[in-house]
Amino acid sequence: MDTTQAGPQPAGERTVNPFVVVDGVDGFIAFLADVFGATERAEARTPDMFADDGTLIHAEVAIGDSLLMMVDRKRGWPFIPALTQVWVADPAATLRRATARGARVVTEVLPFYGGSDIARFQDPWGNLWWLFSPAADADASAQEWDEESWEAPSEPGPVYTTIVDALRDLEDPGVG
């Protein structure tokens, strides 16, 4: 995939940008800043001028080279959890920061394909986050998927069961 080719988006923007609906954008932004070092794009902050409750109809944060957009959930809107993958240098440290801010660990740090690690947490807004760290050995991260030598596990392991359980047990955290 050629990522150097210019697309239809303006310079400095990303082609795909997730949009998250949360109860309390300001608290969510503070959480993302503490956990991932996110920075708000202040020029994007848009109060909902048709609501007199101080909610936002749009806000954006940068996390690394990515953009996450968000809106305050309105009464009557359904609970829609985001499922988001983030590459981090240290998933254990990221989990510690997240749990210190009220997140629940879904999957402790575990080895994953190609020598990388995986961990997952659910934030206080009900969103699920996949944390991936690069393989410690650059050669391990470059390994190709070898379908012929892969053996299916005889039973599901924690990488599988923890997310299946977390998704099955998702509940609306409630309008704040």
From TrEMBL:
* Pfam families assigned: Glyoxalase (PF00903)
Q: Which residues form the VOC domain?
A: 14-134
The family database entries (InterPro entries) matched by this protein are listed as: Glyas_Bleomycin-R_OHBP_Dase (IPR029068), Glyas_Fos-R_dOase_dom (IPR004360), VOC_core (IPR037523)
Q: Which domain of life does the protein's organism represent? A: Bacteria
PANTHER family reported for this sequence: BNAUNNG04460D PROTEIN-RELATED, VOC DOMAIN-CONTAINING PROTEIN
This one is known as Putative glyoxalase superfamily protein PhnB
